[in-house]
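Quick one: structure tokens for this chain, please?
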Amino acid sequence: MAQMWQKLAEKLNEWLMCMLNSMTGFAAQTGAEGDWKWSWDIRSVNARGLDVRLRVPDWIQGLETELRARVRARLARGSVTVSLRLLKDERQGADELSLTPELITGALDTLATIEALAQDRSDLDLAPASAFDVFQMVRRARGDDDLSPEANKALAKTLLADFDAAFADFVRSRAAEGEKLAAVLQSQVARIDALTNDATQEASHRAAGMSENFTRAVQRMMENAETIDTDRVHQEIALMAVKADVTEELDRLRVHVAAAQDLLAANGAVGRKLDFLTQEFNREANTLCSKSQWPEITRIGLDLKAVVDQMREQVQNVE
């Protein structure tokens, strides 16, 4: 039965990794075993790449290296901070009783010696010692953190197993946030698609209107000019038509919409690719506005720019 649930959990984690993930997430978990109790805190925010920061005891052999490897195996982007607070239960009630005057005096004498030697060095500037610094020195003098290699290895194994459970919650929190982001992004892509279709319809209306305007302008020129180069007029009209043509921009917008929809349905990290697409969307919207020469198309272009800006803000949260 335990193996069956383990396999189901692994499948669930694989499924979660196939969803659009957010770079923001949080998980916290506490645990205890034997003389030890601990608490995990895992959180992440946006980043261009993957930045893993660990705040864990350095005396537990191999813990930091293994934690970093496990985070990098599951995540592609984000600034991730993993913190571990570890306490020894059996010392909680005995700490005050075992803080003898002799131990405290010894720690203070050691600190005084260090500060006196530091004063003779012009290149050293020590910060004042705190009560916590003295307490840590006493704990080390008592050997609170001294473990045999076997006990150290066993503690690391226990902590890593508990970390896996906390990290699974963390991944689920990112996936849940990613699901919300996916819905927002899909609606924004759908809006871009609809605006592109509206611009296509307005472009056909504009073509007829511009043709009439060109015809009237040519007639006025021919009426007011004694001689006119008809071929030159035709060339100018053709050039104006090419400069005002937005067919390529609309075609590229449709291609970008299809690419965005594919990315939103894809597995793995797609944040950077979506970010690049928003730049392309914005480029086409700008060109559409500059070439429109038609109030309705200009309005659509401005609406496109507004939606693309909103999409770009959301994409910054995507892994």
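The first strand starts at residue 25 and ends at 33.
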